[in-house]
Amino acid sequence: MIRLDNLLYGVQPRATRQAVVVPPPWDGRLIGPVVTDSREVTPGSLFVALAGERTDGHRFLPDVVARGAAAALVSPVTLAALAPDLAAAARPWRLIEPTESALLANVPPEACLLIAVDDPLQALQRAAVYHRRMFTPTVIGITGSVGKTSTKEVVAAVVSQRLRTLKSQRSFNSDVTLPATLLGLTADHQVAVLEMGMWAAGEIRFLAALARPHIGIVTNVGPSHLERLGSIEAIANAKAELPESLPAEGWCILNADDPRVAAMATRTPARVLTYGYAPHADVRVTDVISYGLYGIELTVVYQGAQHRLRTPLIGKHHAYTALAAIAAGLVLGLDWEAIAAGLRAPGEQLRLRVVQSQTGVTIIDDTYNAAPLSTIAALNVLAETPGRRIAVLGEMLELGAATEEGHRQVGAAAAQTADWLVAVGRQAQTMAEAALAAGMPPDRVAICPDNESAIDLLNQMIRSGDCLLIKGSRGVQMETIVAALQA
Are residues 249 and 327 in the same domain? Predict the structure, then answer.
């Protein structure tokens, strides 16, 4: 939430900002949360009219006004071109320049304010920077090729045991959604846990300039986004923008088991704390026991003392998630009781979830996204489950030159962890061939060209007691398979 006067001041270009004095009854008005999808508008929201690949948010302003938005950031030129029917909106509205706050005295308090700006996205980012500078939370930035959202959730669960914490919702990690999260800061927040993603070099540095993190966590470097950045080295350089942006009095928390991440210790002015299995890791795990779908137990050594911890996180690979959260808790001065409590309650937004179908089938739903590393980790989870283990694997996107090799790695891993492989989509043949070459019997490998054919096949083959892993990149929408099987 942001006060209207701060919003009107913050959206202005910094070099030409003019003072804002909001008259009654608008003074003190709080606006938020920030949304960019008109379908998510609720009374009091701030809508940001963005131009997308397929449409433009200005087209939906009549609906935004009708749904009760308190304000919207708009381009007057685009507004005139794309929303001519706004005059017939079901609720009063007023187009206003940020410097025209005095005119609000004549605007009914129930009206939706359309705030005219040069560029809605840049105005949102300027407002976020201004709002961020009004508060003094410890900001934790998290990046990496895989595991950002899970790490963010568990870090927030740990630090919130002792400190009032704001966290990114869902996977809000872009130049649009991170500023939206920053506008949720209040004076009550002691910590903000923010996920930072990237599509190109320079983006994490830009996000860090917006958020000004004190603590940075880098989980790993892998081939995700290889198609855009061209090489693993370029991806590592992009991720290193977070450590490079930290202050000298801050902390850089690095995965000691990933050589490219560990090397970032030389690229940050901040103090460094490492985690992992490596003997030289500062926060070191020495033993992990998996209880299948019921979580893991791990022994952690820090400064010579051992700590036995339990978490409902599924799969041994989540030892890294837990370690990153432990490290964050330690640099913030949390005691081990609080850390253990946080690990037992890792939040509700973890992407891998276990659901039961009406026919008695257990579904491991990991459909949000996929890369070779995360898919092989999910297959290892499947290997620890009872019943017939069926891996339903879709295409992994944005791997560039590593596309074929990545799908071969996954196919080979499926042969070692699953009883059946149902390969779906354009790379199904590659995964199937690798599984066969690794020893999976031909009658246990199926190729489906699309999700619909996979649903048809699975409805014929599955039976009560089976366990299915369903995973693929976000763009191939494997969640439709989960929904069909649940029904």
Answer: yes
| CATH number of residue 59's parent domain | 3.40.1390.10
Q: Is 144 annotated to bind ligand? A: yes
For 200-242, the pLDDT digits (tens) are: 899 999 999 999 999 999 999 987 767 677 788 999 999 999 9
148 is in an annotated binding site: yes
Task: Grade residue 113 by pLDDT with cuts at 50, 70 and 90.
Answer: very high
Tell me the per-residue pLDDT of 307-352, one tens digit each, with 9 for 90 and over: 999 999 988 999 999 999 999 999 999 999 999 999 998 755 466 7
In this structure, the answer to whether residues 340 and 231 fall within a common structural domain is yes
Does the annotation list 150 as a binding residue? yes
Are the CB atoms for 264 and 253 separated by under 8 Å?
no
Whether 75 has a binding-site annotation, put simply, is no
Clarify whether residues 423 and 314 are in a common domain.
no
* This prediction's pTM: 0.84
146 marked ligand binding residue: yes
Q: What is the CATH number of the domain that holds 314?
A: 3.40.1190.10
Whether 212 and 293 map to the same domain: the answer is yes
The domain of 41 spans 2-120
Looking at the structure, tell me whether residues 460 and 359 fall in a common domain: yes
Instruction: Tell me, yes or no, whether 36 and 151 share the same domain.
Output: no
Q: Render 303-337 in DSSP notation, one character per residue.
A: TTEEEEEEE---SGGGHHHHHHHHHHHHHTT--HH
Is there a single domain that holds both residue 304 and residue 419?
A: no
As for how many domains the chain has, the answer is: 3
Mark whether 304 and 160 lie in a shared domain.
yes
149 carries a ligand binding annotation: yes
Indicate whether 125 belongs to any domain.
no
| Contact predicate 325/308, CB 8 Å | no
